[in-house]
Amino acid sequence: MSSSKKKQSFLGGAAILASAVAIVKAIGFFYKIPLNNIIDTEGKTYFDSAYQIYNVLLTISTAGLPLALSKLVSEAQARGRENEKRKLFSTAIWIFLILGIAGSAFMFFGTKTVAGMLNNESAYYAIRALAPAVFCVCLLACMRGYTQGQGDMKPTAISQVLEALCKLGIGLPLAAYILKAGNGQEYGAAGAIFGVTVGTVLSMLFLIFYLFTHRSPGDSLDIPPSRTLLAARILIIGIPITLSNCAMSIISLVDTSIVLGRLQDGLGMTEIAASALKGQYGYAIDMMNLPSSFVFPVTMSLIPVAAAALARKDYRSANRTITSALRLIAILALPCGVGLSVLSTPIMRLILPLHPEAAVAAGPHLKILGIACIFICIMNLTNAILQTYGKVHLPILTVILGGIIKIAMNYILVGNPDINIHGAPISTLCCYLTIAGLNLFFVWKYSPRRPHYLRLFFLPTVATLLMGGAAWAVCGLAGKVLEKGHSAYGANAIATLLGILAGAGVYAVLVVALGILRADDLKTVPHGQKLAKLLHLK
Questions:
Q1: Which of 166, 268, 392, 522 has its CA at a distance of 20 to 30 angstroms from the CA of residue 300?
Q2: Which long-range contacts (CB under 8 A, 24 or more apart) does 312-315 make?
Q3: 484: burial class by Cβ within 10 Å (0-12, 13-18, 19+)?
Q4: Per-residue model confidence as pLDDT tens digits over 170-180
């Protein structure tokens, strides 16, 4: 296969995965928003507690090892070593099987202990409902890594969408039914999260069927290394990546325990009262994480291109690609974060019509977390860049430092009666600001050609501030005009949407008029060349 065809194949695969991620995140949006209205702030905390434990186990099993398997399978396929490729998969499946059994057993049999450690014993049922998903996800990760290593991204994309659809189609109705039947919030949260478990089971069955019906034909004469050596290769590549990714999940889990503990022990609240406050914060966290879910796949399509350029020692091309990725992050993340911040309370009131008081309480959290969203996007991209440069240990270090700051600040601020839960978003902002700042420094230090951050971020920042001002002014003015002729929710909804449209319009004009976005930035982004022509970019 020629290099140009390989590049096209890669970009096609990246486009498939990026499209799948976009669909999954869109489904996730239509899952989380109704869910937040079905369960109240108390149930939200039970749901989040279970999901954070799941996330730690999920990251340990799926963050680095599938990537390592994918890399080794890809290399074996490129050399025509079919037997080695099959043996890699059969070796990896045992590693993932052991991880899955251990993770599910830990969640199922240690439920009471874990819930107690989180200072959230009522999360018991939600944690137990999610336990089987860990086993399924481990096997899913192995099969996805194997198919991706062969350049086949469709199975991963289909299984991800199937998983998300089950979560939406089963979890939401089940939660609504359980609560309507008069059961408590802890059971409603368990019902909502059970949809995730069903989704992972069906996705796993789909991939098993796919692998059985798409087995590689023919024999090969290559003699593969021993299973011990292959397992060692997978672990050597996968463990550093796993550590850098799971550090933040572990820190978030510890952070939840500290926040709930300080509200109860430090301020004398009951578990239910503390869970209600934590749930308000959780509503805002969902909105903070939304932009990074959409922004990151766009910029990530550039990273493998940079890695290939570095392998060829084409530092000029690598620098151009990295610069484009940083510019795209600035262009996309800044307006998302500032928009969430300036329209924080109106947005929360828009998406939580059934919990108006909780929406108003969550608004101040989102005002701070909107800015934190910018640094999350930068953190994700710079982590990937540093890994591309071979500096796989630096992201681990920066995440740990940021996590220590987050935990220490939460302990101090949340335990202060004058600040209480409002200390949580402040600590989150400081955490991601620290990580992003350190990462940007290390990217600058280790780049073959050092990026000019002022040049990259100045104009997008100017455009974003003008956009934020326009969105805030239009929303505020429209709200005052509409408040007499509409319901409180209707007036806020129309005003918020008008503010968003005004901000988006102003920003789009400024990006093109100021020449912030360039045609080169969109070359490797799915459908980027069409967009460049449409916008007449040079």
A1: 166
A2: 315/448, 315/449
A3: exposed
A4: 999 999 999 99
Q: How far apart are CA 191 and CA 176, in angstroms?
A: 8
Q: Given this model, what pLDDT does residue 352 score?
A: 93
CA atoms within 13 A on the CB side of 102: 10
Checking if the pLDDT of 524 tops 60, the result is: no
Please state the rounded mean pLDDT for residues 251-279: 89
Contact between residue 146 and residue 161 where contact means Cβ atoms under 8 Å apart: no
Q: Indicate if the alpha-carbon torsion angle 247, 331, 429, 290 is positive or negative.
A: negative
- Whose tokens are 């890399």? That residue is 71
Side chain identity at 411, as an amino acid letter?
Y
The tokens describing 323, both together, are 């610069």
Residue 237 vs residues 33, 95, 241, 249: alpha-carbon distances, Å: 38, 14, 7, 20
DSSP letter (8 states) at residue 123: G
Q: Give the ranges where 214-314 is alpha helix by DSSP (H).
A: 227-261, 271-300, 303-311
Half-sphere exposure of 176 (CA within 13 A, CB side): 12
End-to-end CA distance of the chain: 31
Report the predicted TM-score, pTM, of the whole model to 2 decimal places.
0.82
Length of the chain: 538
Amino acid identity of residue 296, one-letter, is F
Task: List pLDDT tens digits, range 118-136.
Answer: 888 888 999 999 899 989 9
Q: What is the dihedral of CA 511, 512, 514, 517, to 10 degrees?
A: 70
Q: Give the tokens for residue 396.
A: 């681990």
